[in-house]
What does this fold into?
Amino acid sequence: MECSCKGPLQLTHEECAVKWFSIKGNRKCDVCRQEVLNLPVTLLRIQSSAQRETVHQHARPVSQLTREWSDAVVLVLISTICYFFFLQQLLVKDMKAHAIVVAAPVSFTLSVLSSIISVTLVSKEYVWAYSTFQFFLVCGVLHILHSIVSVS
It folds into this structure.
C-alpha cells in the first residue's frame, strides 16, 4: 500500500485491501491515517455502489413507515369485521334489529383505537399477535360486562 506505513504494515494483498477499503467507504489507512494512493479504480465503483446503498438505506424508514401504516389499515378492516360480528351476536338477543346501529360504530371505534395502539406500541413482529390478544381481551371484558354484570 502506498501510504506512510513502513515494513510489513505496507504489505497487503491487493484483493484484501480493495475489499477492506470498499467496506470502509474511504481510502484512509487505519494505521497511519494517510490516504492510500495505489488502490485500483474498481474501489471507486464499489464505493459509488456503497454510497447508493447508503442513500437507499436512508429512504427505507419512509417505506417501512408506509408499510406499517398499510398494515394498520388492514388491521382496522379485519378487527372492525371481527368486533362487528362479535357485538352483533352479543346484542342481537336483546336489541333485535337495532343491534346493527350500535355494533357498527362501536366496532369501528374499537378497531381504530386498538390498531393505532398495536402499531405504535408493539414491534413489527408482534403486531398481529398483540392485536389478537387485545381482541380476545376486549371481547372477554365486553362479554362479562354484558352477560354477567348485565350492563346494556
Observations:
- DSSP finds four helices and no strands in the chain.
